[in-house]
Amino acid sequence: MKSISIKGQERESVGKVATKAARNAGLVPCVVYGGEQPVHFTAEEKAFKSLVYTPNVHTVAVDLGEKTIDCILQDIQFDPVSDKILHIDFYQLQADKEITMEVPVKVVGNSKGVMAGGVLRLNQRKLKVRALPANLPDFVEADITDLEMGNKLYVTKVPTNNFKLLHPDNTVVAQVRISRAAMKAAQEAAKAEKGGAKKKK
User: Fold this and answer.
1) Same domain, 112 and 64
2) How far apart are CA 73 and CA 130, in angstroms?
3) CA distances (Å), origin 174, targets 59, 136, 178
């Protein structure tokens, strides 16, 4: 999985007054859990653009000058009025410990059902995976090539490489639905066939 770097400054004062002062200065209060002790730091709000405002997922290298902590985004709080970032929680990565996170689904292939007039529906835009940090995928690939009209692609048919998918076997990732136009054409064809059969009699 791709990593992005965020430059921050470790902070010792973590009370309400210090937090408010940090926000007034245009900084986002953050904390990293998962290590021996939580690490509190602040960073400029613009530093999080490529992490928060994107459909992609990344691991994060928090650069605090004397040390760098590899982690993932765990939780984020927004101001309900201004939509500004109020606080971010990160979780520290350990090379030998598996972690769970959601990654995007990437559709590949040309569905036979879609080419025949069906409509593709992506039921799961993200899937929950569990893996060691080094094996976290940027996305999960869903190959729809063999999907005929009315078929479904179940999570059991999605390839996994050094990671596990944490979903029940009956989870539908994508499906090809019969479009209204295709249904109408089928009905009209059936009517025409019936009409032709009556004439023959």
Assistant:
1) no
2) 15
3) 27, 22, 13
C-beta of residue 21 within 8 angstroms of C-beta of residue 12: no
Same domain, 83 and 7: yes
**Residue holding tokens 């290298």?**
61
Segment (H or E) for 29? strand 27-33
Buried b (16+ CB within 10 A) or exposed e, 74-98: bebeeeeeeeebeebebbbbeeeee
Can you list the positions of beta strands (E) in 116-170? 119-122, 126-131, 140-143, 152-154, 164-165
Q: Domain of 23? A: 3-93
Residues 89 and 7 in one domain: yes
Mean pLDDT within 23-31: 91
Q: What is the CATH number of the domain that holds 164?
A: 2.170.120.20
Question: Which DSSP state fits 179?
Answer: P
Q: Is 26 left (phi over 0), alpha (psi -120 to 50) or beta?
A: left
Per-residue pLDDT of 107-124, as tens digits, reads 999 998 888 888 999 999
Q: Dump pLDDT digits (tens) for 32-67.
A: 999 889 999 999 988 998 888 888 899 999 999 989
What is d(CA 50, CA 56) in angstroms, rounded to the nearest whole number?
9
